[in-house]
Amino acid sequence: MSPAGSGRARLTVRGVIRRYGGIEAVAGVDLTAPPGRITALIGPNGAGKSTLFDCLAGTVRPDAGRVLLGGRDVTRLPAYARVRLGLARTFQQIAVFPTLSVADNVRIGAERRHRRRPDARAVDTATARALALFGLQDLAAEPAGEQPTGVLRLLELARALAGDPQVLLLDEPAAGLDTAQTARLVAALRGLADRGTALLLVEHDPDLVGELADTVYAMAGGRVVACGPAAGVLADARVARAWGGAAPGAGVGAP
Ligand code: ATP
Prior knowledge:
255 residues; six-stranded mixed sheet; disordered N terminus; disordered C terminus; binds adenosine-5'-triphosphate
């Protein structure tokens, strides 16, 4: 299977529906995450963000709708096939191999990319680059299981990046990070977008969304209730209502 097109890929979601029993957890969502841009998905608990993410990553099959990666329909492909096509994700629940070193955890991401034609030097280079991007070089030889949450969060990101994804899905990437780590995260994600990666993140912190995102989609009840540039969406009254009034500038510029 070849990567999705040359250059960088766009992730496109058309009319995705996913039901659980009588509930439409995702009730017909259209969304685009373009290359070189950071797109954020916000909304209250139960809005359907995680279910939509699972549909994009391939761990949950939508009941209707399509997911396109660089123009290629991946709706029926399993998660591992999407990873090979350049779609990587990180999880809300951190998942690392605790007995492996920090570097070896990152190496797994790099090896994924070179699975077909193993290239030890390219894997080494990609691993070192990803470690450096998140300031993890000094911890490279340490067991991952002994690291605090903030380091593990960065480690997960480094592992996802080592595979050089075209599209990166991030589920609450700043959860558990301190101020310095969050600043590193912001710089790293910006750098990735500048190099052409399409980033889509679920995030609860409105300040971080405002700082990072080019475009924001706000979900409530399984639907997109607002989308557009971050400042406008964060100030939208519908978003504030859905978010329980937590959005900054609620009501300003509301329809
Ligand atoms: P949070 O911010 O709390 O993670 P969310 O926006 O990610 O919330 P989802 O977790 O996608 O929302 O949940 C959307 C709806 O789908 C909720 O009503 C939830 O109870 C339901 N749901 C999600 N996963 C399942 C499942 N595996 N089985 C049954 N119902 C589910």
